Amino acid sequence: MKKLIIGLLLIIVGLSACKTRRVEHENIYQLIERILPGKSSQFVLEDLKDMKGEIFELSGNNGKIVIKATNDMAFAKAFGSYLKKYCNTSVSWYLDDPVGVPDELPMVETPVIQECRFEKRFFLNYCTFGYTMLSWQWDDWERFIDWMALNGINMPLAITGQEAVWMEVWKDFGMTEEEIRAYFTGPAHLPWHRMGNLDGFLGPLPQSYIDHQFELQKKILERERSLGMTPVLPAFAGHVPKAINEKYPDAKITSLGSYGVGDQYQAYFLDPMDSLFVKIQQKFLTVQTKVFGTDHFYGADPFNEMDPPETTPEYLASVSKTIYDGMSSIDPDAKWVQMGWTFYYMKLWKEDPARLEAMIKAVPENKMIILDYFAEKEEVWRNTQAWNGAPFIWCYLGNFGGNTEMAAPIIKVAKRLSEAENDPDHGKFNGIGSTLEGFNVNRFIFEWLFDYAWDKNVTNLQEWIRQYTKSKTKNDDPVAYDAYKRMIELVYNDQVSDVGTGSLMQARPFLTGVKGYQRPNKYNYQELTEILGVMLSANKKSLQSIEYQKDLVVVTKQVLDNLIIPIRKKINEAYINNDSVELKKQIEIFAGILDDADRLLATQSEFLLGKWINDARSFGNDSVSKAYYEKNARVLITTWGNEGNGIIDYASRDLSGLISSYYKVRWQKFFDILQQSLKENKPLLMDSINKNMASFEWDWTNQRTKFTIKPQGNSLEIVKEIYAKYKPLYNLCNY
Question: What's the whole-model pTM score?
């Protein structure tokens, strides 16, 4: 009896200790449970004590996976590393993608220890909140925040819901709710409104949307902070409503333009030397801190792609000083996070380096953090004395507008990052990050980037490709490994996804050359078709893997994108040669490629126009409001602005439904005119054609056609069919 009592006491003590451990790291156990339902009990979490920095240790003990770490971010990153290296799975940033792991979790036989070398790991871009997150609900955000945690990201941009704060601010400065909502753009263009690029377009912003985003932001921040992240919140950078001039007629307000969407949508900038400036900054930060709290990081970009009212170093220094003084008057621990895009993009900063130096040095030391925004294209730190002594974060951009071309220069990035880290003149290089404008393809390089923060060995790309192949195929498949190795060397070598990297099929029709934002990358297209053939000869287990099939779809899509380039060339040759028979034949091939691309992409949730539209419509509560949100979603990925806008198709992307209803229809209209021109021996009047195209494009944004919202078809079988169908034409892909 005595032994029984002692035994029961030991069990109770053991359960109590277990419960204590679960409570101590409950947020991480919950993360594990969300990713691996029912399996969190197979993990033991323990603190790494008496160690500085961010460190984790993976090991095994008595059939459990043991994670020891110095903080929550290290715990989360360790769990992500375990999934990649032992379960051969990489959790997607999309909620719809399942997480596949073995029924019996693999053990860690030999302990693994990793330490993070970079204090800050930044993620997101103002534009991402439009090009990807436009219609995200909490479930989408929850998965995405988990993805960031698994990849060790600790400094996410967090700008959702700020319109509710601005509502309170502008009302305090004498504006009505109706005036304020008319100042805001529609949901799709809020990122550019927030950056001071335009006002009012597709507005007024519904109050229900403002309220929804306010509540969503509170959830986002609570979860991010619970996992050890320090979100970057917005601050006032000078962008004000034009109507405020009526309340303050002496205020010094200057137009900054409207991104080409019309004079009625111009944005306005308040001179920092105006006494009103600091008052607005203080009011905004006071209200924001009250409702959202703070982690002391604030994003503010006074001249994003816009010319300042004055360009003297003295004036620009006053702008910086005033912005920061306003921040620090409310939050003495404030740190200003400044995106470096405009310093790369705008010539005026390169014409006179003293301008940038003045802006940076007007802020107290270490209180401004610069995002070296597009470092795979140009490392601005190398031309600015390491950002004139300011701390900076080396950022990989990687995507513009949500374009879906295969482009991710992992070999180039690996080389540049390693060289920057080892350069004795790199100054206060204390972070890495990504400033991508949109998701959809090439996810692997973003995950690789943040792996680099913890493990220099990922620059050994041969070994990394081997592990990546296993994560896709779920087995050792030398054929698949060879295909991925060749693909990295061919497509993912130094192909930078520059401003507007899109397929020709997404372009407004024309016969020769490259125009607009559809500028395909250059490599040996025929070799990519050969790589696709190798991928299809992988073993049975590989071909049945969902992750591998997704890559098959992406590569096949790219093969079709590339194939229409020589087909268009043949169309042009037939037209020049007055060969109506050949012209008709090549047009049919061209149209067939678009049809097959549309059918192929219908197999994947992330490539469905129907899902993009349906997610937007879910914000409405009646037919009128649903149509409003749909209009916003349609405009952003097509005309971008109003009819005839110059940014047309900037956010072009291969989506099933968008190809069939928009891109193909445009091309077919053009081909009808082309054939008629040949028949009647009349010249092509491109100005007239483009005007008619602009009318069609705007009309399309007002359509309410329904598209499928669920994936359809067998992706593997469709890939095989398309590969075989166009094999006789692959010799044309000799670009």
Answer: 0.95
